[in-house]
Structure formats: structure tokens, C-alpha cells
Design goal:
The complex is a heterodimer. Chain A is α+β, with helices and mostly antiparallel strands. Chain A contains 19 helices and 34 strands. In chain A, the strands form ten sheets. In chain A, strands 3-7-1-14-11-12-13 form a seven-stranded mixed sheet. In chain A, strands 9-17-16-15-10 form a five-stranded mixed sheet, with helices on both faces. Chain A has a four-stranded mixed sheet with strand order 20-30-31-34. In chain A, a hairpin with a 6-residue loop joins strand 11 and strand 12. Chain A starts with 22 loop residues before the first helix and ends with a helix. Classes of the chains: A alpha+beta, B alpha+beta. The interface between A and B is large, with 56 and 58 residues.
């Protein structure tokens, strides 16, 4: 492992595997998740959801529900409409029904809510709400949706005459066409990245506590972005922003699912306001799976123009996304398909043209960045599957094909044909190291020999480049809010500190790693630093934690505010040492006059002096705040090698080895980084092998519970072998790039490439995810006939 | 119905509806919120507690069925001697991230070690295969249970000597 430490383990700065500060409460069952919150007079809300995918609402009869003993209120769209809250904006500039008034547009859509004194009563009474539906044809694919004569799903939307949600394109169409016209070879791949669901084990929920006299709204919410949510609540509900306090307590996993604002949050808040008592709503698992933010659902055709010796000249992509009934991607405003245009990957070529369209269907809205930075999993999957296809078509080893086309270390910063400027990287070294660790040449020899015996084994490679850490304010905003982030550091007289951050942990360990950044920059031991996050009344503004932006943006803000503090402490030390500030040097936790390290002032001494003994003219206290606007995204990358054995009779495949090399720049806490990679690889394995949300022809969601929506257990999950290289980001204050999502982005292609590689000699070029045994078996059978 | 359930060594008497789930009884009547709810279908296992020492998904047992029985939740793992070895091991080996599945994982691990003091990697994976985790990829959970088993074995060896 690369040693990047400059501090002692006692200080616990960057590079130390400091044990997590958040563990103590969680291992004793003393966490505080939304559903753990109980308040005097608290009521419970249950939602009435549509059982059908597409229907007109003729009437809603709430009498029977309202008559149940213990029911306090039944809320319908009509009531919400009276307060101007029947519809709300999405994070992609569309509008979404809070409670349906005219039509239901997907199964599971919120139609009414029952508030009662007990959760069992609320659930019982919700069953008694009688909705008269007039059935309409359900549209379940974007292809059906865009066909002539398709029923208009968004008939309420002014100016909407078809089911097209958006179009977007980028790149140089003419130059790309010319490159394709002149190419020796054109390789193409059509594949569907299926709809998946983040499914954190904690579902979404809220305890809304609105004081009807003061108007103070305290909302305990499962929120990955509490500050942004506060502003959106203010804008949508017309509440004064100073009276809204959002507290995102312990969060039981997010993975992008807890970025959007869901109808349940809004209805519970409205109910609390109208009734004058706290209202708790905690989603059921089925509610979570059928109505909240899904990921993926991209139908992609990608083409590469290549020379006969395998040099890529251009890339062309046509993508159609299934958006569900409302266009609700959580993504930067400027980009209609997120950062999908990073699909040129890790390769050096001149031209690309990317065309994207999105269609409304009768499915749940979402399109959240499920453990990725805005559609980067889809992009990475496409280019890495295309590389495998090209290798098979041209008869060039897939590792060699990548080596021939890699952006070289000396080309950084590297501008891609779609406008990203990659910050740093050494791709050939990373791939070589991963191949060597896997024993690639021996594996190829084994593969050749085993094919002779009728055995099927495959070696899959993926080399991905992510674009994370949005973002520079000039380019990235969500709902108009620039994607900056912040940190406030207060050092108390005894030298202990409180760090308040705009980002929000959901298990990533911010309370530990952000303290380590401060420890590195100031010398205050990480164990003396408390990190506060998630409470909008107690932390500075930020856009939240998703798209791997915590360390690239919030971590940078933390380093910068710690440097301000360290600089003030240096001036105080100069005063105490009776020297000029420019003569003062710092070594971990001590300041001294250059050349005389024997006489020193500790950071704790300086902190005490900040409140007791200051130089003339200096302001008292030792605290500051920084808002950080990053100059660029960061670009983590990695090389993954997967070895699988495929049973030719059943199509069942097993992972024999999974070697994952990640380069996320400087690693703040190696233990936590490796934990993030383990989790990300598991989700990549899940999507490639079993995890998908599908629908029948009537729009019924198949995958509405954990018996139908399969999540890998410890039994199926492979063991992982981790490797690293460290290429710091040149523009990040501590050289870190972000790691939470790399493995989910990079690994699906490696798993699929491995299975396809096992059967490529039979002529198989593609098996769509999830690569279920029957799909593999069918591919083998088709190839054999 | 009036029931008395011994939770973590303390009798809890309450008047409960016959349909009330044990998990709701633990969380709302006994106010022990370390036991979580994740799926409603006995799939995810975050509600796992020990009933008379055996792991049970408390969303699939009625509170009245626990009348007169001994229930251990995560809050009952710690003793006067301090943290249970499985709690220490989960922290030491980074066996938790968001912490939502962790109470159940630790209880299953503790029950496994009670039965099998030296479980193999496969035996641990099989034992926890009724418990989902979305964060860790399970590798560090397996390591945590192994580490706790090693501590338990050493402790037992020490006691013998």
C-alpha cells in the first residue's frame, strides 16, 4: 500500500486507517434513524397508491376511511390542490404529481394519504379509500411510447403533444460521420442497461413537525441533500426559508435514492401544518421499490470506427432512455442525460457524436444517479462493452486493444471529444498491474486449453474513467443552485474542534475522514474533532452527498478552511514566540521558528491564545468558513479483471477471481476506501447478475419486493482482490478524487465482458444485463445452431 | 392481550393487539430502536433478534408468540465487562458502514459463534445469508465475525488454563 502519511497515528491525518467515529453509536443500537424518532402527539401517515399503471381517476371516496376510529385526516389531491401543492417541480425541470388528481401514470403512484393515531390504523384505513379508476392502455417501453398513435401520458402538460421527454446531443456530427465513412472497420453494439433500484435497506421517511403558531417547520428526513431540500421546500411550499429546518439524521444507505423530494415528504409536511401535530411517514419496501428513484434504463447503440490495427478514430452513440411518467433525473441542469457523454472513456481519439432521447412511460419516475455520477455507469458500461466487442471482431486481445488506445500519462490534462478535461492518470500502468496480479497470460493459456476440453471460462476486463465531484459553478447546478460546498471549522480554547459540513454521510464515514483532513492541515488529533452534518440550522450550505462529490468538493472546502485556521494559528504562534510570522514553520502539530525546533508552540497553545493572548489588532477566536467552488471535476479510474467459469449445460456462471485496481488519487483513510470499493463491486456484481426491475405488459412492477427483486447475499457475492495506484488530482487541495462509486461504475462491464469472453469463440457478442443463466444458455444454444 | 417478554434481561409487560409484530413491540413499546425494519417480507433480515438464543426475524413473529420468552436485541449485547467481542470486531474490521443492517448482523454472528466457535468463511457466509447488506460487500462482515470468534476462542482457552 502506498504510504502517504505525514502525521503520527495519534494525530491521524491523511493516510491513516483511523477507526470510525460513527461506529460507537451504531454497534450499540444507539443510532438515530428517521423511524427511531418519536414525538409527543405524533401521528402516522400511510399512502394510498395506485394499483394500476395508467388510468383516469373518476372519483375518490374517503368516507369509509375517515370513519375509522383513530383516523385524524384523509388527504387527497383535491385538498393539496387547494393549497397549490398538488404538483411539484422535479430536479430536471419537469413537474410531478404529489397526489394524483386527474390520472394515475404508474403503478404505485401516490393518490391519497391517511393520517391516524397508530400506524396499523393508518394502513388499515388506507385500504378503505375507494378510488374509481377508468383504465387506459399502459405504455411500458420507450419504443412503444414514441410510436405513432401512442396514448399521450402527459396530457396535462402544456404544449406536450407526444411522449418525448427530452432530446440532447453533443459532439461533432459531421467530423464523426466523416471518420466513420473513412474507417477500415466499424464495430457496433446494441444493449439495454436495465432499470435497477438503489434499495438502501432503510426506506425513505420523514417526521414532519410544523408548529402551526410560529410556522417553524422541523423536518427529520432521509435526505442526501438537506440544504438543497430546504430551499426547494421554501420555493415549492412558499414557506419562509428561515423557518424550515431539515435534519437528516443517521441514514441507512442512500445510493442516490434519497436525493429527490418525494410526494410522501410533501404530504406529511402539509398534514402536520394542517393538523398541528407531528406526522411520521415511513415508506414500505414495496412503496420504495415501485415509486422512488430508480437508476439506469438506457437503450444504447454504440459504434466505434477503427483502423485495421485497432486504433479508434471516432465513436457514435444513439441512446433512448425510459424516464417513467415524470422526467425526474437528479442531475445538473445543463445536461439532459447527465454526464453520459463521458462515454468516450479512457481512450484517445478525435471525434464523437452522442444523440440522446428520453421518453415518458407508465413507470415510476427517477433516473437518479444510483451509486454513480449522473449516468456515468451507463457511459462506462457502453464503451467498455464496445471495447470487448471490437476486440472480438478484430481478433485483437482486449487488453492489447485498450493499451493501443489509452490516453497516455503525458497527455493530461486531456480534453475529450465531448468536452471533459481529465485531470490526471496513468492508465497503462494501472491495467498492467491489474493484469499481472490476475496472471493474465496464464489465464489466456488456460482458456485456450480448457476450450479444447469443452470447458468455458472467460476473462473480462474493464478500464473505466469516472467524472465526479460536480462541480465548477460555471457549468454545474441543480435547480439553479450552484454545486459548490462548504465547511466551517471552530477551534475551542482547549484545542478541541467542531467541523460543520454541507455534505451528509449515509455510511461513507464523513465523521472520520473529514476530521482526518482537519488533522492533517492543523495538527489537531482527529479524535479531538467532532464533525457535524445533516442539520441545516447547524451547518453551512451545500448541495449534498451524491455523485461522489463529498470528498472532491466538501473535502476540499474542509482542507481550505483548515488551512485558514492553521494560518491564523501560525500568526498567533509568531506572537507567542516573538518572531515574524514568515519565519514560523509547522511540523504536524507544532509551530516553531525556522532553525529552532526546540522552542515550539502547539496548535492547542495557539488555540488557547486565540481567546486569551492575541497580537495587537487580531480578531479574537479561531474559526472560519469556506465555500469551495472546484475548478474542475475529478476523474478517478480503475482497471478491473474478472475470471468466470461458465457451465455450458446450464449457463450458470461463477466468479473465480475479481481483481480490482482503483486509483482515486490520495486516500484519506485506506480502510474506508477499501470498504467503499467492496460495496461498489458488490452492487456492480448485483446489476450484472441478478438485480433488475421489470414490468409486465400492463405495467405491473415485477420486482416490487425483496423476494422478486434480488439483491446478492453473502453467499452469492464474490471475494474481491484490491490493488491501487495513487495519481493525485492536481487541482484538488489534498489530491483526492472520490471513491464511493467507482466500483459500481466500472465493474458491471468487467463481469459481463468475462461471461461474453467465455463464449466469444462461439460467435456470441452480447448478453444483456442481468446476465441470467437462461440468457447465457440461450446465447450458447443460438450460437451452436 | 397482556404479554410479558423478557428483553435483554428485563421483563416487559404490555397489552398488545394480537396482530402486533414482535419488531413493532420491541421498537415502540419497549422503545429499543436498535432493531430495524427493512422489507416487510422476511427477506432483508435487519429486524433479526435472538429468541431464546436463536436468530429470528422479528417482523415475522407476533409479539404474543414471544410471551414468556427471552429476547436479545443489539442493546443487550454489551455487558458489565464492556462491549461484546462481536461489537468490537465490527468496529475494528470496518464491518459496518451505514449501520442499518449491523445490529442484526452482529446478533447472527454472535449466535453462530456460540454454536460454532471456529466458523469457516463459507460457514459464516451461509449463516448471514438471510441478512442483506448494501454497503459493505460482506467481506469485512465475514472478517469481523472471524475476529470475534478468535477472541471468543482465546478467551475460552484462557479460562480453561
Amino acid at each position: 500500500m502506498t504510504d502517504t502519511t505525514t502525521t503520527s497515528p495519534e494525530i491521524g491525518g491523511i493516510g491513516h486507517s483511523v477507526k470510525r467515529a460513527e461506529d460507537a453509536r451504531l454497534i450499540e443500537g444507539q443510532g438515530n434513524f428517521v423511524d427511531d424518532i418519536a414525538m409527543p402527539g405524533m401521528l402516522y401517515m400511510a399512502l394510498v397508491r395506485s394499483p394500476v399503471a395508467h388510468a383516469r381517476i373518476n372519483s375518490i371516496n374517503t368516507e369509509a376511511a375517515a370513519a375509522v376510529d383513530g383516523v385524524v385526516a384523509v388527504v387527497t389531491g383535491e385538498l393539496m390542490d387547494a393549497h397549490g401543492l398538488a404538483w411539484m417541480p422535479t430536479l430536471s425541470g419537469d413537474t410531478q404529481a404529489v397526489l394524483a388528481t386527474d390520472k394515475v401514470r404508474y403503478q404505485g403512484q401516490e393518490v391519497a394519504a391517511v393520517v391516524a393515531t397508530d400506524p396499523y390504523i393508518a394502513t388499515d384505513a388506507a385500504e378503505l379509500v375507494d378510488v374509481d379508476y377508468e383504465m387506459l392502455d399502459a405504455i411500458t417501453t420507450p419504443q412503444q411510447s414514441l410510436a405513432d398513435g401512442a396514448e399521450l401520458i402527459r396530457n396535462e402538460k402544456e404544449g406536450q403533444t407526444d411522449n418525448l421527454a427530452y432530446t440532447w446531443e453533443t459532439g461533432d456530427a459531421a467530423a464523426t460521420e466523416a471518420a466513420f465513412a473513412n474507417a477500415d472497420r466499424v464495430v457496433s453494439l446494441t444493449t439495454h442497461y436495465p432499470r435497477s433500484h438503489p434499495s438502501p435497506l432503510e426506506t425513505c421517511g420523514i417526521v414532519a413537525d410544523v408548529n402551526s403558531v410560529t410556522g417553524q417547520a422541523t423536518l427529520y428526513m432521509t435526505s442526501q441533500a438537506p440544504h438543497a431540500h430546504r430551499t426547494l421546500f421554501a420555493l415549492v411550499a412558499g414557506l419562509p426559508e428561515q423557518n424550515i429546518r431539515i435534519v437528516s439524521p443517521d441514514i441507512g444507505g442512500g445510493f442516490g435514492n434519497k436525493v429527490p423530494i418525494y410526494p410522501g415528504y410533501v404530504v406529511a409536511t402539509a398534514a402536520s401544518l394542517l393538523i398541528g401535530q407531528p406526522v411520521k411517514w415511513v415508506e414500505t419496501r414495496t412503496g420504495n421499490l415501485i415509486s422512488t428513484g430508480f437508476g439506469r434504463d438506457y437503450y444504447m447503440t454504440g459504434e466505434l470506427a477503427l483502423s485495421n490495427d485497432g486504433r479508434i478514430q471516432a465513436m457514435r452513440v444513439d441512446m433512448l432512455s425510459d424516464q417513467g411518467a415524470f422526467y425526474a433525473d437528479a442531475q445538473p441542469t445543463r445536461y439532459k442525460a447527465g454526464l453520459f457523454h463521458v462515454c468516450t472513456g479512457s481512450y484517445d481519439f478525435g471525434n464523437a457524436h452522442i444523440k440522446c432521447r428520453g421518453a415518458f412511460t407508465n413507470k415510476a419516475p427517477g433516473g437518479v444517479a444510483y451509486r454513480c455520477s449522473f449516468r456515468i455507469t451507463e457511459a462506462s458500461f457502453l464503451i467498455e462493452r464496445l471495447m470487448q466487442t471490437a476486440a472480438d471482431e478484430l481478433g485483437i486481445d482486449p487488453a492489447e486493444l485498450r493499451m493501443r488506445n489509452f490516453i497516455q500519462p503525458e497527455q493530461f490534462p486531456y480534453e475529450t471529444p465531448t468536452g471533459f478535461v481529465y485531470d490526471s492518470g496513468d492508465y497503462p500502468t494501472a491495467l498492467r498491474k491489474a493484469l499481472d496480479a490476475a496472471g493474465y497470460d496464464e489465464l489466456r493459456a488456460e482458456q485456450a486449453a480448457s476450450r479444447e476440453q469443452g470447458k468455458l471460462m472467460g476473462i473480462g476486463i474493464a478500464h473505466f474513467t469516472e467524472a465526479v465531484g460536480a462541480g465548477p459553478a460555471h457549468t454545474y447546478d441543480i435547480a439553479g443552485l450552484k454545486m459548490i460546498d462548504s465547511a466551517e471549522l471552530r477551534v475551542h480554547p482547549t484545542g478541541k474542534a467542531v467541523l460543520k459540513i454541507g455534505v451528509k454521510t449515509q455510511g461513507q464515514g464523513h465523521e472520520t475522514t473529514f476530521a482526518q483532513i482537519v488533522a492533517e492541515e492543523t495538527g489537531i488529533p482527529a479524535s479531538d474533532i467532532k464533525v457535524i452534518h445533516g442539520d441545516t440550522d447547524d451547518t453551512p450550505y451545500g448541495l449534498g452527498t451524491y455523485a461522489s462529490r463529498s470528498t472532491p468538493v466538501g473535502g476540499a472546502a474542509t482542507a481550505m478552511v483548515a488551512r485558514k485556521i492553521a494560518d491564523k494559528a501560525r500568526h498567533i504562534a509568531a506572537h507567542l514566540l516573538e518572531a515574524a510570522p514568515e519565519d514560523i514553520e509547522r511540523d504536524a502539530d507544532k509551530f516553531f521558528v525556522a532553525g529552532s525546533p526546540d522552542q515550539s508552540v502547539s496548535i492547542q497553545d495557539a488555540a488557547f491564545a486565540a481567546y486569551t493572548n492575541l497580537p495587537e489588532g487580531m480578531e479574537y477566536g479561531l474559526e472560519d468558513v469556506t465555500y469551495y467552488n472546484p475548478p474542475n471535476l475529478t476523474f478517478p479510474y480503475g482497471s478491473y479483471v474478472v475470471v468466470v467459469d461458465v457451465d455450458p449445460d446450464t449457463g450458470v456462471w461463477k466468479v473465480r477471481r475479481m481483481v480490482a485496481l482503483d486509483d482515486c488519487g490520495v486516500r484519506i483513510n485506506p480502510m474506508i476506501v477499501e470498504g467503499q470499493i467492496h460495496g461498489g463491486l458488490t452492487e456492480g456484481f448485483a446489476m450484472s447478475s441478478m438485480q433488475w426491475i421489470t414490468f409486465d405488459d400492463d405495467g405491473n412492477c415485477i420486482g416490487s419486493n425483496f423476494m422478486d427483486y434480488l439483491i446478492p447475499t453473502a453467499w452469492e457475492t464474490p471475494r474481491f482482490e484490491l490493488l491501487e495506484t495513487v495519481t493525485p488530482s492536481p487541482h484538488h487541495p489534498i489530491g483526492a478524487k472520490g471513491i464511493g462509486e467507482s466500483a459500481t461504475v466500472g465493474s458491471p462491464a468487467a463481469f459481463v465482458n468475462a461471461v461474453v469472453d467465455a463464449v466469444a469463440h462461439l460467435g456470441v457478442r452480447n448478453i444483456d444485463m442481468p446476465v441470467l443463466p437462461d440468457r447465457v444458455w440461450e446465447a450458447i444454444e443460438t450460437a451452436n445452431t | 392481550m397482556e404479554i410479558t417478554v423478557n428483553i435483554n434481561g428485563t421483563d416487559h409487560t404490555a397489552d398488545v393487539e394480537p396482530r402486533k409484530l414482535l419488531v413493532d413491540h420491541i421498537r415502540t413499546d419497549a422503545r429499543l430502536t436498535g432493531t430495524h425494519i427493512g422489507c416487510d417480507t422476511t427477506s432483508c433480515g435487519v429486524c433479526t433478534v435472538l429468541v431464546d438464543g436463536k436468530p429470528v426475524k422479528s417482523c415475522t413473529m407476533l409479539a404474543v408468540q414471544a410471551d414468556g420468552r427471552n429476547v436479545t436485541t443489539v442493546e443487550g449485547l454489551k455487558s458489565a465487562d464492556g462491549l461484546h467481542p462481536i461489537q468490537q470486531a465490527f468496529s475494528d474490521e470496518h464491518g459496518l458502514q451505514c449501520g442499518f443492517c449491523t445490529p442484526a448482523m452482529m446478533l447472527v454472528g454472535a449466535a453462530l459463534i456460540d454454536e460454532n466457535p471456529n466458523p469457516s468463511d463459507d460457514e459464516i457466509r451461509w449463516a448471514i445469508s438471510g441478512n442483506l447488506c448494501r454497503c459493505t460487500g460482506y467481506m469485512n462482515i465475514v472478517k469481523s465475525i472471524q475476529a470475534a470468534a478468535a477472541v471468543a476462542s482465546n478467551g475460552a482457552a484462557g479460562a480453561d488454563a
